[in-house]
Specification:
Blueprint lengths: L1 E3 L2 E2 L15 H4 L18 E6 L6 E7 L10
Antiparallel strand pairs: 1-2, 1-3, 3-4
């Protein structure tokens, strides 16, 4: 999920990383996250968070900027 501090600003998706391939391209996974409508400070760091689904322990935290050109209010 994407987070602003501890506030979730996107949906959460589950991915399974179970490939034993030695090739990085065969181990890649893709996901689409839907960001909640709202105003986001494009100069502020938001975070992409990955958690273990069973323990809920955070395993990855990646800082990023959210700069939306337009919002879809449908």
């Amino acid at each position: 999920s994407l987070r602003d501090g501890e506030t979730m600003i996107s949906d959460e998706q589950s991915l399974t990383f179970d490939s034993s391939s030695g090739l990085m391209d065969e181990r890649k996974r893709s996901v689409i996250l839907t960001i909640k409508s709202g105003q986001y400070d494009k100069s502020k760091d938001h975070f992409l968070i990955a958690r273990d689904t069973q323990s809920r322990v955070e395993v990855i935290r990646i800082p990023l900027k959210v700069d939306l050109a337009f919002a879809n209010d449908f």
